[in-house]
Amino acid sequence: MTERVCIAQIGAAHGVRGELRLKPFTEDPLSVTRYGPLETEDGKRHFEIETARPAKDMLVVRLKGVADRETAERLTNLRLYVARERLPKPADDEFYYADLIGLAAVTADGTRFGSVKAMHNFGAGDLLEIEPASGGNTLLLPFTAAVVPVVDIKGGQVVIAPPNEIVVEGEATDEENRPA
Question: For residue range 115-138, what is the model confidence (pLDDT) as tens digits?
Answer without folding.
Answer: 999 988 777 788 999 999 988 899
